[in-house]
Amino acid sequence: MKKRQKEWLLNILGIFIVFVFLFPFFWMIVTSFKTQSEIFQIPPTFLPVDWQFESYQEIMQNNIVQNFFNSLLISSLTTLVVLLLSVPSAYGLARFSIRGKELFILLFLVTQMLPATVILTPLFILFNQMGILNSYAGPILACATLGIPFSVLILRTFFLGIPRELEDAAKIDGCNPLSAFVRIVMPLAMPSIIVCGAVSFFFTWGDLIFSITFNRSQELWPLTAGIYNAIGQYGIEWNSLMAFATISALPVLIIFILLQKRLVKGLASGAVK
């Protein structure tokens, strides 16, 4: 009986925690369908009395399709750059004896402690000299500078847990070091690679400061920067703002649902390693 009561208490606690975390998302969606007067109504309504869709129609006229495409392009290319550079770097730090390897790892840890505002000015000066301001390259490279150290630290830990004997056996069967890495190591590390890719994608999708700093043209702004269009001349239009936020969050939610099993597997295996 005590065990069953404990299970019931844990289930109730779990449901309560899920409700606490999901309620803001529910309130955001509900608010997007309310009128301005109903939003500030006291007591508040949990469901709209008069469902309205004008807020979604308005933001569709504010270049949201272009903003969505910009977010998708910048996030996808950033994730690609992060994985292409971090996977071989993490493998090299895990497998080979490199002079100053501990210093490299320490520098990667230090970069995780720096806020984005610290590197903003140096990157702006550098990108200005390179002539890549007002282009997609600026936000992509800026987000990659923060995503690569994180991915290297995560993947290195996983590569250290993969036995060297597997690669030695592959070399005996005729594989060279590169083919052994591609055919043996990468499939084993795929859960952690997916986790690093998803984290990089989510981070870049929610980026605001890099996009509005390196791109002055609103045609290059992602969804997070284009949300300013929901702020009207006479104040914030909360229903339009929540509609914009709902559309911005849906792709991330869909990706998380599709990759849920792989993400959990990657996080769990990384923790065990």
TrEMBL record:
Would you kindly state one Gene Ontology biological process term found in this protein's UniProt entry?
transmembrane transport
Tell me which Pfam families the record gives.
Answer: BPD_transp_1
Compartment(s) of residence: Cell membrane
InterPro entries with a match to the protein in the record: BP-dep_ABC_trans_perm, MetI-like, MetI-like_sf
User: Per UniProt, what is the membrane topology?
Assistant: Multi-pass membrane protein
| Sequence ranges assigned to domain ABC transmembrane type-1 in this UniProt record | 68-259
Annotated transmembrane regions = 12-30, 68-91, 103-127, 139-159, 180-205, 241-259
- Tell me if Nucleotide-binding is a UniProt keyword of this record: no
Q: Which GO terms describe its cellular component?
A: plasma membrane
Q: Does the keyword DNA repair apply?
A: no
The UniProt keywords, alphabetically, are: Cell membrane, Membrane, Sugar transport, Transmembrane, Transmembrane helix, Transport
Family per UniProt? Answer: Belongs to the binding-protein-dependent transport system permease family. MalFG subfamily.
| Protein name (Swiss-Prot/TrEMBL) | Carbohydrate ABC transporter permease
Q: Which organism is it from?
A: Salibacterium salarium
The taxonomic lineage of its organism, from the top, reads: Bacteria, Bacillati, Bacillota, Bacilli, Bacillales
